[in-house]
Design goal:
The structure is a single chain. By secondary structure, this protein is an alpha/beta fold. It folds into two domains: 136 residues, HAD superfamily/HAD-like (Rossmann fold, 3-Layer(aba) Sandwich); 57 residues, DNA polymerase, domain 1. Helix content is 43%, strand content 12%. The protein contains ten helices and six strands; from the N terminus they run βαααααβαβααβαββα. A six-stranded parallel beta sheet has the order 3-2-1-4-5-6. Helix 2 packs across helix 3. The longest helix is centred in the first third of the chain and has 15 residues. The protein is globular and about 55 Å long. The mean pLDDT is 95.
Length: 213
């Protein structure tokens, strides 16, 4: 078997993007920055985007530039009604279970949010573990240190035995530089930042069969 461990991104990967959930989280981030940190509302979206672009996540950017309680931030920004945005796809569970035996979530979110998403999608038991932002701290995807932590958590010494499915080209490019096979889900055609592309996770078992043949 070519791949012994599969890493799955969480948001916009386990479920289709553009369902409104990221917008709800972004609004909570803006509210946190205003209410907890006293940052004026004017220009908040741009400040948030600049932090995300420069530091990898807004949380990491805020932590590098201001005193902040990480646990308070994560609880606040993920306090959204997850089930209003996502629902189970009956075909998804068997598709994931048909993949490599070792499957882990690798997310720049936290474990509590990942658990709520997994529960809402009815994917309990499909993943061996969740490697979250606090496991990766002070790093995050797409930093190489984050992938080294993920490999260590998975007990993998050879990144070429691993595959990452993610909706972020930036995250995939970082993994690919270390030798992890990078699969883009959605987001158009595959470029130099990834090794393969699928429209949804339902196509992943067929892709793996092609790669193993």
């Amino acid at each position: 078997m070519r791949f012994t461990t599969l890493f799955f991104d969480l948001d916009d990967t386990l479920y289709p993007a553009n369902n409104g959930m990221w917008g709800a989280i972004a609004a909570r981030i803006d509210r946190y920055m205003n209410e907890r940190l006293g940052i004026p509302l004017e220009g908040l979206p741009k400040i948030r985007q600049d932090l995300y672009t420069h530091y990898g996540t807004t949380l990491r950017g805020l932590s590098m530039t201001r005193p902040i309680d990480r646990d308070d931030y994560l609880a606040f920004v993920h306090d959204i009604p997850v089930r209003q945005f996502i629902s189970p796809n009956p075909a998804l569970r068997p598709a994931i279970q048909a993949c490599a035996p070792r499957r882990l979530i690798l997310t720049n979110s936290d474990r509590a949010h990942a658990g709520r998403v997994i529960d809402a999608l009815e994917l309990q038991g499909c993943f061996e573990a969740v490697v979250d932002i606090l496991d990766l701290w002070p790093h995050c995807k797409p930093m190489p240190e984050a992938y080294h932590v993920a490999l260590q958590k998975a007990g993998e010494s050879d990144p070429q035995h691993c595959l990452l499915v993610d909706d972020s080209r930036k995250n995939l490019a970082g993994a690919r530089e270390l030798g992890i096979f990078a699969v883009l889900v959605g987001q158009g055609r595959c470029g130099e930042d990834c090794d393969a592309q699928i429209d949804s996770l339902l196509q992943l078992p067929d892709l793996l069969k092609e790669l193993e043949s």
